[in-house]
Amino acid sequence: MSRAVFKDKIFIAGMLAYLAFVGSVWALHFHATIPDLKVTVFDQISRPGERVAVTAKIEVDGPGPFKRDKEALAVEFAAAGATLGTATTADEGIAALEIDAPANKGITWLRVTPVDRGSYRLAEQPDGGALFVVGTETPIIVCDIDGTITAGDEWDWDTLVRSEGPAALPGAADVLTLLARSNAIVFLTARDDGLLNRTRAWLDIKGFPRSPVLCRDWRLGSLSKTGEFKTRILTSLMERFPNLRWGIGNTAGDCQAYRAIGLPHVTLTESHCEGGAVRCEPVKDWTALGAFLERELAGDGGGK
Questions:
Q1: Which domains occur in the chain, in start order?
Q2: 244 contacts: CB under 8 Å, gap ≥ 6
Q3: If you average pLDDT over every residue of the chain, what do you get?
Q4: d(Cα 172, Cα 57) in Å, to the nearest integer?
């Protein structure tokens, strides 16, 4: 048996043992307590009047950070006190409802509630999930979160989940708030969707403009594929929004994703600019970044 095959078998055995442990903890937790249903309403972006799917994820809250996707559960989508419709959760606990976006630009706040929660309790649902209607004449700026607007790119679970979160980089909130007056800001992060509610709360506390936050579902084998995830989301945005103007990031993965769709971008790490046909502008801090984008957006329609 080769060393590589042996290591693979050890890894698989370890993962099976870990999953068995988690399953045991789940069983004990379920029988000892009445578990909560956690609702996460995802942000969505649309053009005025566009047919769009609004989505939410339902999970059964478990011990510590562990949660289980809740499938085959009917939920009701509502906005401004009016029912939009019902949908049933499918794979990964996701429920999706197709609606017609409002004809006017703005924010429609969404709320999702289980139709019949059965023996589960309903965890408190924070406000946050929304449909953002953006016109094609409004420039869109995509911005990363960790290491781009937060102090430090290396974060840990305790910092994100059990404390007030990381510090914000000086000037980041002020610059993005100013840009949001005449541009649409979209936050694109590789954080897991389980952190979406806390991420939106952190952005609000730190004074960032309320903007759509797009994240991913962490899966075994996908944790290192940040660039691929962001490229996929950016490609979808570019197909629907030709007014995508600039990207902001700090890692090689960010720059790789922006280059893949031909999007000019600004990076807080100079070494990630590789030249080529797609413009990449290194800056030292958010003061310089704000001044640069203000000139570019005013001067040539976004640098394209």
A1: 36-133 (2.60.40.10), 140-300 (3.40.50.1000)
A2: 140, 142, 234, 237, 238, 261, 263
A3: 85
A4: 30
